[in-house]
Amino acid sequence: MPRYLVAQSERPEERERRRRRAGKSSGETYAATLSQLCPGASVDIVSPADASAGPFAAADLIRYDAILLTGSPMHVYDDAPDVRRQLAFMRAVFASGVPSFGSCAGLQVATAAAGGRVRKMPERLEAGVARRIAATDAGRAHPLLEGRPAAWDAPAIHGDEVEELPAGATLLASNGVTRVQAAEICHDRGVFWGVQYHPELSIEEVALALRDSAGDLVEAELAGSECEVQAHVDDLLALHAHPDDRAVRWRLGVDGEFAEERRRRCELTNFLRHAPALRNAAPVAA
After folding, report:
1. pTM, entire model
2. Whether residue 198 lies in the annotated active site
3. For this structure, is 267 an active site residue?
4. Alpha helices, DSSP H only, in 58-213?
5. Is 186 among the catalytic positions?
6. Intervals of CATH 3.40.50.880 along the chain
7. Given a cut of 60, is residue 269 above it in pLDDT?
8. Selected catalytic residue, list 104, 126, 161, 267
9. Does the keyword Endoplasmic reticulum apply (predicted)?
10. Could you confirm whether domain 3-200+265-278 is CATH 1.10.238.10?
11. Active-site position among 200, 232, 240, 266
12. What is the mean pLDDT of residues 48-66?
């Protein structure tokens, strides 16, 4: 059976806050999703940003079949010790040749580790549903997006975004809010596939995160009041309980790509299927 490593970049207090809100840290959510997609797989969780985690070398990682990076509130453009530790971990992942996948901050960490740039989104957030994501010409032929329609919606909660992809990267999908919604990054010996949205999350987890961020959403003018945020949260929770409810889908303006768990997980499922062929697949610069 495959062996996976999940790397969570939340700080300890952020992990505990998420556990109180949603019952799991981001790494624990990933591990649960992987266990559902690959019953019997071995899944380890590490927290590379923690001071107690110690440095990771490529030799520590090669026993894994794939490495997955979670989302988190981390700002990878901050010059802070925890950020430096997380970036050093990602460089070790690239050096190991083990294929990797990341969502939200995971994409941002891989981008920065390979020499790209991440920024705070100018005067906006993407929260709840990332709308009308569309593949680029390269993305339409890429296995990460196999099975996606011409445009789709996905769970998303982020205030940072990739500003510039590193050399050796391919832009795979964009929307009107965030140019880099999906990308492949080839760096050192490694291949990384990533998305700015969250294929690993349940709709309930999205709803609870929005409720926890209600004040920020009002401040960003995405809602007129916290009551409006709660009404949106209530609809998301109703959709989580009843994914086929046509009235709730209509109120939220979503279809099965967002409402159905199997469809939400499309990119993660594709990565796991193709990961064996990606090991040590990146060309190494002379």
Report:
1. 0.95
2. yes
3. no
4. 58-61, 81-96, 105-113, 137-140, 203-212
5. no
6. 3-200+265-278
7. yes
8. 104
9. no
10. no
11. 200
12. 94
